[in-house]
Amino acid sequence: MATIKDRTTYWDKAQQAGFDLSWLNRLQENPVSDDVDEISENNTGRVEGSVSRGNVPQFGTYLFRQKKDVWAHNLTKLYQEFVTRQWSSATDIPWDTIQPLPDDIERAECQLATFFVQVEFVASDVPGRFISTMSPDYHEVRQVLLGQVMDESRHLDVFRKRALANGGGLMRMIDTVSDVVGGSTDNAREFTELSSRLHITGEGNVLTLFRLGELMAYNEAEKAIYRRCAQDEARHVAIGVLHLRYMNEAAPERREEIHGYLDEGETRQATGAGGENPAAINMLTSEALAVLLGGGKDKVDEGQKILMAVRQRQTKEYFQRLKSAGFDDRITNGRMNPSLLEAFNAA
Fold first, then answer.
1. d(Cα 186, Cα 139) in Å, to the nearest integer?
2. H-helix or E-strand containing 126?
3. Does residue 282 sit in helix, strand or coil?
4. Residues 6+ positions from 245 with CB-CB distance below 8 Å
5. Which residues, in sequence order, are CB contacts of 52 under 8 Å at separation 6+?
6. Bridge partners of residue 64, in order along the sequence
7. 134 DSSP β-pair partners
8. 51-89 residue pLDDT tens
9. What pLDDT shows up at residue 275?
10. Which pTM does this prediction carry?
11. What is the mean pLDDT of residues 153-176?
12. Which of 147, 272, 152, 248 is nearest to 196 (CA)?
């Protein structure tokens, strides 16, 4: 075994031969800091906190290099929840509890599952486009978006399996293009626009349905799917709430812009334009929900009554997100969509 004297002699000889060991002083000279630069000059792909080098090519093409454009507080804590709450559609869903269902119930279930497959694809695909456009100095934002992509991919998988598990199969896709009002999640150009539309409105509407999943579940497998997906979806909504809360502090001049995104989102939430809210009145999936909630196609009227309560719950939870993010002044300043305001007052 080498002695301390042997190791000292080795390093002395190494330095005499030209080795530079100054990097060993890194910890003393540059203590770890939680501060993140307001503007990132990092165009080299250098990991946040590592030592910069002058001879590295400037190859980065990062569109988002300002902290206030992407940041939120407590992202590290949120990411830790992402990585500790993972589950598997192969081992954590009791698929054996699925039994044959009446044709109308099975078709309605498959139609709803098809909708979730479609929207979860968008909810993973679009955030994924933004990850590589953010400066590496804001790696916490990248991490939570990667966590969302991982979750949404699993949701796509589990709802596809449910559609195929009982002989029904995937059904009709929802038109998310021709009836879009204003901008949509798919064509968001920057992160705050994306987050306002996706996390606050779109993901929020789906979260309400997941939370009420047991009302439309016909076996333990479906109940487990909705419970698992709800805990994931709550994290995705949290990304948007935390970001808008930070924007209130760091960029209050953008409040009117954000209100514009929320105006568009509320229109889609109320009307079903863009296909983002499966419970909206004129959506194909609202008919499927009515069948599932009522207990069959001959009980659609009863299902529609329950669905109205679901819409009211969606609106109530949306208002709670606005309040948490600091945008609940929409209620008092006349910006709120009239249909949503009526649903909120009726809740």
1. 23
2. helix 103-131
3. coil
4. 72, 73, 324, 325, 326
5. 42, 44, 46
6. 134
7. 64
8. 676 777 777 778 898 999 999 999 999 999 999 999 999
9. 65
10. 0.86
11. 91
12. 248
